[in-house]
Amino acid sequence: METIFPYLPQSFIVVGLILLVIEVLILGFSTFYLFFIGAGLIASGLLMAIGVIPETLFNALLSTAIITSLIALVAWKPMKNIQNKVEPKHVNNDMIGYQFILTEELAIGRTITHRYSGIDWKVKAKEPLSAGTEVKIIAIEVGVLTVQRVE
Questions:
Q1: pLDDT tops 90 at residue 42
Q2: In a domain, 130, yes or no
């Protein structure tokens, strides 16, 4: 069995690095599993290379499992908190400030439909507006325009 894996520490380090690259570059750090396993493989490979762990497949896999579990237990919550920190970005585009005349009455909490650029948009406002009022777009969400009266 020893002759099958003559470069076991180096193999573990290389496979660990490959898993880290896949996790970070391809998956965008969206899951942490490959990161934890990759870190465990690298740590096990380094421990085997310096002689702390005997270079056998059983010891290598056992140490990888233990190190991966320890890293996951310690780092899961902080990494999850970092991943959940999302700063909302206000999108500003050419439609902000566009003015048009309402064809229907618009009440608070209700929406009407306005066709713009071939798309039917839902229109909402923070104040009641009557039909024939000239309004301008002040905010855009997915499929929804927020308008206010033109002063």
A1: yes
A2: yes
